[in-house]
Queue: 4 jobs
Job 1
Amino acid sequence: MDITDTICALSTPPGRSGVAVVRLSGADCLSILRRITGKALPEPRKSSLNLLTDPRSGGEIDEAIVTFFKAPHSYTGEDLAEISTHGNPAIIAALLDTLCHLGARIAIPGEFTMRAFLCGRIDLVGAEAVRDIIEARTIYQARVAGRQRDGALAKELQPVKDGLIEAIVNLESAVEFAEEDISTASRDVVFDLLDGAARRVEKLIYSFRKGRFVREGFTLAIVGPPNAGKSSVFNALLGRDRSIVTDIPGTTRDLVAEDAAISGIPVRLEDTAGLRAVGGEIENLGMERSRRAAADADAVLLVVDASRNLTEEEYELRRQLTSASSILGIVLLNKSDLPARLTEEEKQAFSGSWPYIDASAKTGHGIDETRKVILKQISGDDEPDRDDFMITNLRHCQALEIALDGLGRGRGALQKGMSEEFALFDLRRALDTLGEITGETNTENLLDEIFSRFCIGK
């Protein structure tokens, strides 16, 4: 890749469509446009209708709307054009072939956004957020990614960096002017600066608990004994009839999965076969898949029939699920529309450390409450604050953890009475790591990994 090249690519999905957008960016952008349109273009940021031709043959390619953006006021920071043609694959191929003949080359995945980063149009977090916006499955995901693109994380990190820099300056002054009569901040002041920075970093790291599910979604396995109403609960959470529901135990013999969303967070719902001690050959295969689904899921919804007494088999199932400490669980006491057979003490004893909900998949009672409890188990919140900032990217969280470790080590060295140089080593490392998040420091080894995941044309 040569970033001085002029590049082009289709920026809309391939295939047939009403309109397709081809991007052209680089130093030769304007001269290439003039050759395919045969005329000077209007002033930047004003669209014009143009007949596109191939200079090699003079043949018509298409009639298109062309918008030119002058550097540095463009997405890439270079001269850039967006050519809106009819969405016909033959037209798009002919246009790209002509642009390449005139000196452009096809962009590699993510190259337009990489150039935006290299030209200082966005930071590295913003570049990653562009991909998140494209891949968002809900409008809430898109909004969270949009805040990242607009520099929200950089704003959150700035007070941390400011406090860390002030602490480093004070410590360096103590080292440089140890024999001079120059006033430097006491170690207590430095401790306050480092403690303030550490608290902010810890808060950001904790937000990843919710943020990773917002970005990636989560899987919820619905498990329980036969005829407890798991498929009815599955359909109620999904909002439509997807699983077959009958009064015959063991109707669901294989895993049924569908995608949904809870408060804008994507969730993969899995309706599993009923679990019991003994079954037929086919039913046993289904139960084995149910157990694997429960083990692999981010959370488990254990559904039992509260209109009858609980069996020892159900208590054993509950104990097996509890023994897997990594599983987040909720107990749903289904069929609340029927006379209850369980006391509050029995419900509490059965659910243990897991929250429980009285619900009826048949009437819909408790289903909204179930969604809220699921969300709280996953994210720690009953309802995500729409304006609350959160870390959604694993790379950012890992960098913050390294920075927090550096802050702790630096503070520890000072507490032990060690020389400032020991603390400075760890504190500078922490500052550099924070810079890696936004792309200010040590980004060379990250760029190929990050931008290779983009689609071509973005």
Job 2
Amino acid sequence: MTIYQTVTDSIIAELERGASPWIKPWQADSSADANVISKKAYKGINRLLLGVSSMSKGYSSANWATYKQWLELGAQVKKGEKATAIVYFQPVVKPVADAESTDGGKSYALLKTYFVFNAAQVDGYTDQASVVDSTFNPIALADDRIVKTGAIIRHGGDAAFYSPSHDSIQLPHQSAFTSTDHYYATAFHELTHWTSAKARCDRVLGKKFGDSKYAFEELVAEMGAAFLCFDHGITGKLQHASYIANWLKCLRDDNKAVFKAAALAQKAADYILGLDATKGQIAA
């Protein structure tokens, strides 16, 4: 079984068990899953893989490392613990065979699998708990990020959507949401759709609910919202149960769909995080 199929099967299983899509797996900790030695946060599909693993096994730590890395820190993986598989796309350049060759020098990505253990799975390591500054307001941070996108956002009515023809986002008033977290999660979902415009991340949108492109874009938007919520300390979860059947079909039809969606979601999130408009266009 390929790593693509293994990952896809694990996501399908979570959806079939009723897991709230994409946001819920990242509730365990307010910080992103990161390598305990490099301190670098995992990105793309690995965020999803580690999030699902933490949710299903109850890990509260955001620290991960390979077996060898834990040994380097003087820690030992507990007997019987199972690793979580993550992936790495290693760039490879095909060598030029000779001066006359037209086939060499091409680059491609080689998918490699490696295995990591959570800090909760080892002995001999004291995990540092996340320190929360009581003066820090993650919702204010989210407001600032939304304004800096420069996106046109209007409030009112009882629907949330991105309109490509008007290049604008419509959201219900914040008071209509059951929590402020849900409001920001929804805003980030629609902002991920907003990045689909040709001048931004250039993704193809579906034309109607239920078609394959529509279902795939919803996968991208949910995952993009999850990444952005996590980056801003937001713990709300989206409730898009009506999409689950379409997502399941999308995943079953293409065992690389979740990898593709994760990569595009990460690209959208990075795009949004890199914007710094001087004045937002958010209407009351």
Job 3
Amino acid sequence: MHGERFRYREGSGVARMVRFLARPAPLASACCLMLIALMAAHPSASLGASLRGVAVWWDVLFPALFPFFVMAELMLGFGVVHFFGTLLDPLMRPVFRLPGVAGFAVTMGLVSGYPVGARLAARLREQGQISRTEGERLVAFVTTSDPIFLIGAVSVGFFHQPALAPLLAAAHYGGALVIGLIFRRYRRREPITRAARTAGVRLLPAALAAMHRARSEDGRPPGRLLQDAIGSALRLNIVVGGLVVFFSVVMELLARANILGLLDAVLQPLLRGAGLPAPLSSAFVSGLFEVTLGAKAAAESGAPLLYRAAAAAWVLSWAGLSVHAQIASIIGKTDIRYAPFLAARAAHGVISAALVFALWGWLGP
């Protein structure tokens, strides 16, 4: 009897409190309260970080992403995505277990960088062109850096090593391809979304018919389609800009509170134990939150070039919590889940860093 009363009191008291504190909502509330207290303690630093975030968004991200967002919406409305999807269907199905329309998202994601590929995947899911599992497979490996940032900003701007670009590109995009091949086994018992028949010489006519059918189903005149595309691109760009500003402030406040320094001190012994240079810790800590700062820290870490390149490859592939928040906000309007994307980013970072070591003898500067 006493044991039963004790178990009852434990279940209704301490255990309930532990379960309550372990829930995401109280933890998020505590983090918000901590950030508000830090903002009140460092108002000037918060304002400066906000201005820097706005400058990065307005000067770099907005002009880089806006045209791609508009063109993606236009090509969906005009049926161009469905045209290429039918053409690519015989390739995408056996290789990645995805319908052909996913091939357009893969191409746009590689060319324009995050988060355009995830945006296209979400739109395809909203239109019913792909299933939830296919959307999770697609988002897992289309979230990559654009070549302009990888070559111009990282290789040339941060490292001052143009010859490093082929190595970083091979490791980063090769890692994305490996992730795509791994995720083809993700929920592999589910059937692939069916598409129009594309066998033999009927491939091109089927693609043209798919484009015409998609355009007819959309039905919006070109002027209305352009207006809707611009409005959608502006709304998404504002969300991206807000997240960039928010994480800029968060990182500044964490640095002021010496939390980043604490993470750095914890990570250094782990890196030494793994046989990696301890100065790389700043790159991993910064890259955990933001890809640009992480790549810059990797270039300036003072470690040998091989290790700095591997750290930069990890940062580009992990993409930072800022990009994670952008992707989560985009797929949050659909039933595509964030957990597979998180697992893919973690695996992509490790694979890309390993590819740098494996390819150094052939592509290293």
Job 4
Amino acid sequence: MASSDHDAAPVSSGVTGLDHILAGGYAAQRSHLIEGRPGAGKTTLAMQFLLEGVQRGERCLYITLSESRRELLNVAERHGWSLAGIEIFELVPPELSLDPKQQQSLVHSSDLELGETVRIAIAEIERVKPQRVVFDSLSEIRLLSEGSLRYRRQVHALRSFLLIQNTTALFLDDLTAETDDLNLHSLSHAVIRLEQLAPLYGGERRRLRVIKMRGTPFRGGYHDYVIRRGGLRVFPRLVAAEHVGTFADERCSTGSSELDLLLGGGLDRGTSTMLIGPSGVGKSTVALMSLSAAVARGETVLVLSFDETTSVLRRRARGLGLPLEDAIASGALRIEQIDPAEVSPGELADMVQNAVEQAGVSTVVIDSLTGYHNAMPEENYLLLQMHELLTYLNQQGVISLLILAQHGMIGTMGSTVDLTYLSDTVLLFRAFEAQGRLRRAVSVVKKRTGSHEDTIRELRIEAGGIRVGEPLHQFRGVMTGVPTFEGERSSLLPAGDLDA
């Protein structure tokens, strides 16, 4: 990374994901505006910026007009940080600070005129001569200004002084004005807005957007982030075009020779396959068979489970006689139980990307897209997000299995979202009645990467996995959701224990 001694060269923000969005970090020796409503994480982000400077041996200063030193130390303690090496200068009334041993002098900001407040801040900057400084917050300056023109002039004077001092600065603004004040946008080298959203159910969602950054090809749009112990973690929006990989063409078995025959030889590497049908027809079981076959080939598999707990999934595998326990213990099979009410789409995409690039995952199972849809605010965003994620996985040579449960058990069925056009292969599952018994059928609706059977085959779940029967020709009404078998009983698979 370029040194901060170079004018406007990137310096790390202390947050890896944000550095990626900003093409390296903040611009050295420039002033940046971090704005957001209270609770968005501005103070935490500012602390990470200064802590990064301390690690690099730089002098760092935190000027606060809103929070006391004690409050800042408490925030740092909750994140497991030490603020040693960071000068903290308070411009807050002394009654807000309960620490009589503090070394910094206290100034009554309420008794000061605006110009005197700015002069005191400048004097402290001249004393410390920091390479990095945080000014928290500009809302107090705005209140003292009692007018936008005076406010702009004072902030401009402070920014100009920092530029002369070759200091990289962050100005925090909590947007407490009645309307968003754009005065600072033209004065700042960069503007980053933090947002906190409260859905009707589930945890809050946080996202940030870089509004401007002069002379830098930053990544635009919204990016999810979370605040946890250790600070902000930012998840840059996934852009599949930036991750084009090379891999050998290969056709992999699903673990069932009959199903492979139906698919024209198996699943092609670098493709996505959707398993669609009502609940209980064998979609997850076929996925379990496929991931078991992948583990047997020596691959690493990731399962994102939205609908089933990890214990239920493992119990189901044991009931089918699939040897997955050793794979889980060795790390060859990774099962991530996802709570869609708590995990943001950006965090989920980051989880998949890390699994592929760091753990070498070559098969990904999403069970199910219905649960994934619940993690998204709107259907249109799901389509865009899923398009980028599947394109990324395909370009990495990953086999993706997507399970989509349709509404209802019999009759005309639909789904909350149509993602079949994004999938390279679509396996359609249906339940049908024959001779007084409920049975299952499977067929391949489409396959972009080669030929496949256009027949309908019976599917049966039994100990050891699945069994696929011979093509059944005496069917009608399969696509309407009410398949009717009009053939002979001898064409069907004999009854098994699990069908009884």
